[in-house]
Amino acid sequence: xxxxxxxxxxxxxxxxxxxxxxxxxxxxxxxxxxxxxxxxxxxxxxxxxxxxxxxxxxxxxxxxxxxxxxxxxxxxxxxxxxxxxxxxxxxxxxxxxxxxxxxxxxxxxxxxxxxxxxxxxxxxxxxxxxxxxxxxxxxxxxxxxxxx
Length: 148
Hints:
Elements: E1 34-35, E2 40-44, H1 59-76, E3 79-90, E4 100-109, E5 113-122, E6 127-140
Antiparallel strand pairs: 1-2, 2-4, 3-6, 4-5, 5-6
């Protein structure tokens, strides 16, 4: 990591332009995550603008959603993070128009790192993709649990 550039991450700015959750990003996915005290949860129905092969959702979109979900689990648990390592598994192709449910939670938290897991499933519960990640803790959040 000695060759990593020194960059400043401003965790105080609004998330409005985030590609996955930013509500003011004109080309974003606009996901809205909720917290049940244990897991972050969102729903999303991809359309033709999210496809790779004709009629199928691009794997990069699926990966973005998984990454964002795990970041939200960390946010809801009180820490700002940045993904260090992520592994995604695709279990079946996702078709355009299929309603997706996304869930994520933390599996481990240390002083400097968090580990998380996420899953995307269809409306009937069929899993389509899952992921695990290790994320660096940037800062502690001032808000209480469940408030992002």
